[in-house]
Specification:
Elements (H helix, E strand, L loop, with lengths): L7 E2 L12 E3 L2 E3 L8 E7 L22 E6 L39 E2 L10 E3 L7 E9 L5 E6 L2 E5 L5 E4 L6 E4 L8 E5 L2 E6 L2 E6 L2 E4 L11 E9 L2 E8 L2 E6 L2 E5 L10 E8 L2 E8 L2 E8 L2 E7 L7 E4 L5 E5 L2 E7 L2 E5 L5 E5 L7 E5 L3 E5 L2 E6 L8 E2 L5 E4 L5 E6 L10 H12 L1 H4 L11 H6 L1 H10 L12 H12 L7
Parallel strand pairs: 1-5, 4-20, 6-24, 7-28, 8-32
Antiparallel strand pairs: 2-3, 4-5, 8-35, 9-10, 10-11, 11-12, 13-14, 14-15, 15-16, 17-18, 18-19, 19-20, 21-22, 22-23, 23-24, 25-26, 26-27, 27-28, 29-30, 30-31, 31-32, 33-34, 34-35
């Protein structure tokens, strides 16, 4: 059963805000609007349970266990502030929002950690369809040399050189705009609420008037590296998710939440959005503790754990809502609630990159770069060696090559794979494995023509998948041969090439 915890109220704190100019798309736009920051810092703490729950039974955690601080910020000319022309940026809220005052939190309400039936993990194992190789189209965006680079928005990248100097590279070829304020050990870049933010050893800073200025939100973040920042538009506004050290944080509507879930290990985790969990999309967190789907509604967090005990090295949700995870040298795919498939590429994957909802995405192994596109996994030939690939707004890979040059990679379109046909694929398989009993002179059901196969297709597929056919001493069909039979149907039962 879930435990109830009564929250406590911490002291009221002030945050100084000021006047900022926004630096956007390499252009200065004057905006001297002053806003008051109204923020609520709320932690949603994990609660334990006394017994192991049954599948789908809640074990519960909520916002009751942590201190709650109300931040009522005044205005200071020496501080830093926000621009109200867009969605609220880190550390500020929309102008005109009334003073929240002191809020009576009251007693906590339970939230859920669901244990889904599919938590056991993948049930089917078969290799991915190998596609034809595709060629890398590599563009050298900037020679640098740079020590760090990451996409910020559109065709613009934020880059840092060995002196710690920060530049915005692009969108025009050869365009490099200097930013005032150096960077130390940069880790992540994001555009959120109309502004570009850089996370480094200094904290979280926004680019305003061509200068890096500390975000007021930085004061409330743990004093640990920010390793991941992901933005998502929702019906309620813009969400900003951050991984800071071993904490998962959500900035929503001027409020900062710490989100925890049993057995979820956040340090070094990978985040993406989408999929179908209880009828809607979720945040997916893949890390050392497995894979978790997270939903936050008001002050309630619901989490669904998957693949527990498996380290997840990357996660992606494709256009069909299928969730892909790289783990232990395999590509695991959640096709639908309760339906998992294990794909075993020739070389085990160690990372996945893709924009949430993209049909095509990238996979890296120890020795090669791959691209999933049009239902097949393609080897990418001729890609430069890059230690830290990142995905940009167009779904391309960007990173620094061995000489520190900023490069961008896309691929040629894969060559359309020939359709599976009776004469070219299925008849030879039949002759090798089935004709002895089911040929024109066989003693069992006649299956020597494509018409007979189409008529009996469901029974044929059932028997070969179960291993009932072919009979000994013939060997059972391989997963690839079974996949070929299925492909013949999906390709329209074609007779000849």
């Amino acid at each position: 059963m879930p435990r109830q915890v009564t929250p406590s109220m911490s002291s009221i704190r002030d945050v100084a805000m000021g006047k900022w100019n926004r630096f956007e798309f390499g252009l200065l736009r004057n905006s001297f609007d002053t806003v008051k920051m109204l923020g609520l810092v709320l932690a949603l703490s994990a609660l334990g349970c006394s017994a192991e729950p049954a599948a789908d039974a809640p074990i519960g955690f909520d916002g009751g266990g942590a201190d709650v601080a109300m931040v009522d910020g005044g205005v200071s000319d020496g501080g830093s502030g926000g621009d109200t022309s867009g969605a609220p940026d880190a550390g500020s809220t929309d102008a005109g929002l009334s003073d929240a005052g002191t809020e009576d939190v009251g007693t906590s309400s339970s939230a859920d950690t669901q244990v889904p039936e599919e938590d056991a993990g993948p049930q089917d194992v078969f290799p991915l369809n190998p596609g034809s190789p595709v060629k890398a189209i590599t563009e050298k965006v900037s020679a640098g040399p740079w020590t760090f680079a990451a996409p910020s928005h559109g065709d613009v990248n934020l880059a840092v050189n060995s002196k710690g100097e920060v530049k915005l590279v692009g969108p025009l070829k050869g365009q490099v705009d200097p930013i005032v304020g150096g960077a130390s050990k940069p880790t992540e870049v994001i555009r959120f609420g109309g502004m570009v933010y850089l996370a480094d050893a200094t904290g979280l800073r926004g680019i305003l008037s061509g200068k890096l200025k500390l975000s007021p939100l930085a004061e409330f973040l743990p004093k640990k590296p920010i390793t991941v920042m992901r933005a998502r538009k929702t019906a309620a506004g813009d969400d900003l998710w951050l991984v800071v050290g071993d904490a998962l944080l959500l900035y929503r509507g001027g409020k900062l939440f710490t989100v925890t879930a049993p057995k979820m290990q956040v340090a070094g985790a990978h985040l993406t959005f989408g999929g179908d969990v209880e009828g809607g999309p979720a945040l997916w967190v893949g890390g050392k503790g497995g894979l978790h789907a997270i939903k936050v509604t008001g002050g309630k967090v619901t989490a669904w754990p998957y693949l527990l005990g498996r380290k997840v090295d990357g996660v992606h949700v494709d256009a069909k809502g299928r969730v892909w995870a790289a783990s232990k040298g395999e590509l695991l795919r959640r096709d639908a609630p309760g339906q998992w498939t294990t794909h075993v590429p020739k070389h085990g994957p160690k990372a996945i990159w893709g924009r949430p909802g993209d049909a095509a995405f990238w996979v890296a192994t120890e020795t090669m770069l791959l691209r999933w596109e049009a239902g097949e996994l393609h080897e990418v030939q001729g890609a430069p060696a890059v230690a830290d690939w990142r995905i940009d707004a167009a779904g391309r890979l960007t990173g620094l090559d061995l000489k520190g040059a900023l490069v961008r990679v896309q691929t040629t379109k894969p060559v359309a794979k020939p359709k599976v046909t009776w004469k070219g694929d299925i008849a030879p398989l039949f002759d090798n494995s089935c004709a002895q009993c089911h040929g024109i002179d066989g003693v069992n059901t006649k299956l020597h023509s494509s018409a007979l196969w189409k008529k009996n297709f469901a029974n044929i597929l059932k028997n070969v998948e179960s291993g009932a056919m072919p009979l000994s001493p013939k060997q059972p069909l391989t997963p690839g041969e079974i996949a070929l039979i299925k492909a013949w149907k999906s390709d329209g039962f074609k007779e000849s090439p």
